[in-house]
UniProtKB/TrEMBL annotation:
<feature type="binding site">
    <location>
        <position position="213"/>
    </location>
    <ligand>
        <name>ATP</name>
    </ligand>
</feature>
<feature type="binding site">
    <location>
        <position position="22"/>
    </location>
    <ligand>
        <name>Mg(2+)</name>
    </ligand>
</feature>
<protein>
    <recommendedName>
        <fullName>ATP-dependent dethiobiotin synthetase BioD</fullName>
        <ecNumber>6.3.3.3</ecNumber>
    </recommendedName>
</protein>
<feature type="binding site">
    <location>
        <position position="113"/>
    </location>
    <ligand>
        <name>Mg(2+)</name>
    </ligand>
</feature>
<feature type="binding site">
    <location>
        <position position="55"/>
    </location>
    <ligand>
        <name>ATP</name>
    </ligand>
</feature>
<keyword id="KW-0067">ATP-binding</keyword>
<feature type="binding site">
    <location>
        <position position="55"/>
    </location>
    <ligand>
        <name>Mg(2+)</name>
    </ligand>
</feature>
<keyword id="KW-0547">Nucleotide-binding</keyword>
<feature type="binding site">
    <location>
        <position position="44"/>
    </location>
    <ligand>
        <name>substrate</name>
    </ligand>
</feature>
<feature type="binding site">
    <location>
        <begin position="18"/>
        <end position="23"/>
    </location>
    <ligand>
        <name>ATP</name>
    </ligand>
</feature>
<keyword id="KW-0963">Cytoplasm</keyword>
<comment type="pathway">
    <text>Cofactor biosynthesis; biotin biosynthesis; biotin from 7,8-diaminononanoate: step 1/2.</text>
</comment>
<comment type="similarity">
    <text>Belongs to the dethiobiotin synthetase family.</text>
</comment>
<comment type="function">
    <text>Catalyzes a mechanistically unusual reaction, the ATP-dependent insertion of CO2 between the N7 and N8 nitrogen atoms of 7,8-diaminopelargonic acid (DAPA, also called 7,8-diammoniononanoate) to form a ureido ring.</text>
</comment>
<dbReference type="GO" id="GO:0004141">
    <property type="term" value="F:dethiobiotin synthase activity"/>
</dbReference>
<feature type="binding site">
    <location>
        <begin position="113"/>
        <end position="116"/>
    </location>
    <ligand>
        <name>ATP</name>
    </ligand>
</feature>
<comment type="subunit">
    <text>Homodimer.</text>
</comment>
Amino acid sequence: MTPGNGKRVVVVTGTDTGVGKTVTAAALAAVAQGRVTVVKPVQTGIGGIDPDEPDTAAVHRLTGRDVHQLVGLAEPLAPDVAARRQGVAIPPVADHVAQVLALMPDHDVVVVEGAGGLLVRLDAVGGTLLDLAVQLRDLLPAEAALDVVVVARPGLGTLNHTELTVAALRYRGIEPAGLVVGSWPAAPGLAERCNLTDLPRVTDVPVLAVLPEGAGLLPPPEFVEAAPGWFAGQRTR
């Protein structure tokens, strides 16, 4: 398993929305060993006449892994806003933590994909993915570990956004396990090439993987076969 081995929860967050968290979660699930499941605490944007494909459905399509979506909301907004506009109550982060912990006895790896960035509110009382990660760290059984993976864009602006995300994690006592570049272009420009070197330099967090643009459109067998290569040789600082 990348980034670590053994029984663990891997929390996947991003520097923003649309950075490649779902494909990263799928890639991590594809390369994990043992009994693996993927959890999406809150999914938005799945209503209306042209709903988005739920992230858990995309992960299952690409990898065949077991998936769990805990809350689904119609509008493509931050979860607390979408719930308020929809007029529904959503559970607090602590309830999501309890459901993740309940999966641990029957799984070796639980991948948890956030919504948007690290500080997007997942409930109506201000709970964020960062709060979820902190609670998991404090409540996981002794034989299990927590990894937090930060997914970043390759282009301009990514250094600032990634440093801010890493700083927020460290402020709460969580050292990120690594960075993933979520969508590497087929023809990278100067900014992308420099950022690939500078991301680990400015954050002091290793780059675990570089995922090619369009990876989520691969046929499932090709995705599963290719995923280990995206991680191979990428542990750079």
